[in-house]
Amino acid sequence: MAKLSDPVTILKGVGPTKAKQFANLNIYTLGDLICHFPRGYEDRTKLVPIAKLEPDVPACFKACVMTTPRTSHIRKGLDITKVQVADTTGRLNLTFFNQKFTTGQLQYGKEYIFYGAVSGDFIGYHMTSPVFEPLDAPAVTTRRVLPLYPLTAGLSNAAMLKAVHQALALCDPPAEIIPKAVREQYGILPAERAYYAIHEPSSMAEAELAKKRLVFEEFFVFSAGLALMRASRTEKKTDRYENLDLKPFLNALPFTLTGAQQRAIADILGDFQKGTPMNRLVQGDVGSGKTMVAAAAAYAATQNGRQAALMAPTEILAEQHYQSLNRLLAPLGIQTTLLTGSMKPREKAEVRKGLSDGQIQLAVGTHALLSDATVFRNLGLVITDEQHRFGVGQRARLSAKGSNPHLLVMSATPIPRTLALLMYGDLDVSILDELPPGREPVETFLVGESYRARIHAFIRRQVAEGHQCFVVCPAVEENEELGVKAASAWAETLRQTVFPDLRIALLHGKMKGAEKEAAMASFARGEADVMVATTVIEVGVDVPNATLMVIEDADRFGLSQLHQLRGRVGRGSAKSYCILTTHNRNPETLQRLKALCKTTDGFKIAEEDLKLRGPGDFFGSRQSGLPAFRMANLSCDLQTLQQAQTASAAWIEESGTADTPEANALSARIGELFSRAEGTMN
Ligand code: ADP
Ligand code: MG
């Protein structure tokens, strides 16, 4: 008996070359192989009489070889073998190309099972290169449901099939983790059967059942893991805040809070009274006023003698947050400072001293906050902005600088409600689904290449009025992807031929961190008229004077991402515009992009995006915060997800920590799943 952790090289026929190919698919062990699930199946179970074969529909049939196979050598590299077969309903001519060796196995007068599709003309049907097996041989490629595996160069489906078959014969599949009662309630196959049936199902129906079980299993492990995390959080203790009077803060605001902001703040104040650390996500569209919510939380913390820290992913965002928070909180007597990596050592040392002796109440900064040299006297609240850029590890490091501090995560990525719970794992969620009054939506247009001259004229007009423009391209360099605008080349073109008189800046992800920051800061200071950029501008920087964004080849982006990009304009008082360009003529694509012209509601756009593209693409290349599910698909399997959530919650409530084989196997699997997701989970 072999173990799931044994390397694939113990299998027959798997040497170093094959092992490398398997590694391309992230398959290293027998367990990986058993968890390499088919992407689909071909139903080769039914036998069809020759007379009933339909053109171009592949099928199995049993037939007797009526002629000795004859191979003709046509030219170098081309042999053709012909043979006639028959059953009681008819005859069929078979043709094989360059398969002398295989066809040599066909014996006159013997019966075989063939699988292939006939093609026909007025002379009659014939078939090209069917697969076949002797009637008395084991069914490997015919008379079965054939799994179709995700493959890689050099690795055939047949090789995969063989390897998986051996692995299943050599070791037990992963242990059962779903209790019998749950399996019975939801009609779920036992683990052992499911792992065999997913690879070697006796029918399409059985393959479906196996799939259902494995999807359920993944969700079950995931939601059980989240439930345990949540449970362990409520075991931590922290002091209750006594002073929750926000009146001085609210009076100092130049506006009244939106209903959504008030609700989010009420949620936070509720958390502060619980005596366990808050773990809350505030999710809101760009411009929904998340900073004010963070400010209210920071104010409350300082009124209770605690320090607060706000961490932003870039220096320039940190700087902006510092400016707006300091302006608001300084008159209320709250000492706020900035701490970033590029500050002079002496300045940093001074800030750190203020933090360790408690002089400074609110620190706004970058990763510099995480450094060992940064010590807080009494850190009670940790706030992170744009959480996609921070891993759990970083969040935990900042939290570790206090004793069970409250945690507030702010995200500008609207996530459909159905997914929020899943995405944010153990976080409670407050949603800012309301914009401050009087906002003029960014007017959005979708245009084709014929509008090029008008686009340029429009850019010119904005600049002439003293405003600035963004031009966003899908790629950085020309050769990256054929036929899409590349930022560097396009910036050059604009600079040299289109707008030689304007100041054109460039910003893309291949620039160094400091270079990017400098380019962005310079643009924010008004030192360039047009900034040509890739999606790196997506995160947060405020340039209120930018009133136009042109997004080139907009069909290359997801809807949510386009919405996110568009949020970079319309941040000042001037009317703002977004122009989406595309060469694409596909009606569905155009439909999708038009949705963006009609609404500026990030949540609606996210729902639409999720519906259209599924979660994998929906979250795009950015870290989704979700573990990589092998089988489950969030857009189709939501009902199963809900069932698994209910079931796992109930089970953990009853007996989750009991010392049963299932509970132990489950906690091992949770550890595995979450360590695979480490760094991306939030
Ligand atoms: P977000 O971080 O959610 O994108 P901000 O917190 O940066 O949004 O707020 C965007 C702008 O709206 C800021 O200039 C802020 O001062 C302003 N603002 C926030 N809340 C309100 C409100 N309730 N009424 C009017 N303006 C507001
Ligand atoms: Mg913000």
Number of DSSP helical runs: 22
Strand content: 15-25%
Please summarize the sheet with the most strands: 8 strands, mixed
- Low-pLDDT ranges: 618-625, 678-682
Helix fraction by DSSP (H/I, runs of at least 4): 25-40%
Rounded radius of gyration (Å): 31 Å
Number of strands: 23
Ligand set: adenosine-5'-diphosphate, magnesium ion
SS-based structural class? alpha/beta
Mean pLDDT: 87
| General shape | globular
End-to-end separation: 39 Å
If you had to describe this structure to a student in words, what would you say it looks like?
- It is a single chain.
- This protein has 682 residues and is an alpha/beta fold.
- 38% of the residues lie in helices and 18% in strands.
- Strands 2, 3, 4, 5, 6, 7, 8 and 9 form an 8-stranded mixed β-sheet that branches. A 7-stranded parallel β-sheet has the order 13-14-12-15-16-11-17, with helices on both faces. A 6-stranded parallel β-sheet has the order 18-23-22-19-21-20, sandwiched between helices.
- Helix 7 crosses helix 21 (638-655), helix 9 packs parallel to helix 10 and helix 10 crosses helix 11 (315-329).
- The radius of gyration is 31 Å and the shape is globular.
- Residues 618-625 and 678-682 have low confidence and may be disordered.
- Bound molecules: adenosine-5'-diphosphate and magnesium ion.
- Residues 255, 257-258, 261, 284, 286-292, 412, 436 line the site of adenosine-5'-diphosphate (ADP).
